[in-house]
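SAMPLE LOG
Freezer: B-3
Tube label: C17
Construct: single chain, 295 aa
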Amino acid sequence: MNKNRVIGHIFSFITIFIWSFAFVSNKALLTYLTPIENMILRFIIAVFLLTLIYPKEIVPKSFKDELYFMMLGFLGIFLYFILENFALKYTQATNVGLYMGAIPILTAITAHIFSKDEKLNKNLIYGFFLATIGISLILLDGIGFKLRLKGDILALLAATTFAIYSVSLKLAPSNYHYIAITRKSFIYGILFMLIYFIFTNQPPLHIEALKNSIVWLNILFLGLLSSGLAFLLWQQGIDKIGSIAASNYIYLVPLITAIAGVLILSEELTLKMIIGGIVILLGLYIAQKSKICVK
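STRUCTURE (predicted):
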């Protein structure tokens, strides 16, 4: 494995590690802010961070390129988060977590259709089924699965949207700096969020909540790390190892979240969680053994 691919795997793992903790942060903020307020604030902070890192403005070489950046912002920044939040409203968080576990195989299918250098193979399928069993052992521990059609469909649509977004990053126009591409997509994402906020029946802004240090600490974490840094690492991970290999690390989200719950929240460590973690790691190993040619 060459140096670039090693870096790509490291970047992808760090991204998933950050996003696993972001679930806890998001949950804490829902006490004080609406999901759309949270999204707008965190991505505004992320745009400021990316502007500080790379202040040069991106000048699109064609209207088609500009539409591509708009599409990235719509899919990965706006639509995914909207679908996920509505899914959580209509179904159990456990159901949403299980459907999010389908992102790697959905990414593999999407890449197989639209990408010339990433193809679906049997190791990816075997790895998916094993990882899904492990995820189920962790997420369904003492809870159970109850089908709630409306919320479950929204969760599956959210997973599909993120899969398409990840493949789209790999196929993004060349000759643009990756930070500038990310920032541009964030700006479009914020624009769609503001349109949504204005034209939907949203409650009044929770201005008082912004005086709370807990709110700002969580928003800063989500804006600087979960949005700003993690999206940059995700894009670079996909660029170096491909959308399929990078997305396979999403299998680790339930495992990392469960470990965080045990270490930080003193939650109980069960035998099912241990077995589930081992099965997830085995599924990830098999999936990553897939022979994928990445340019």
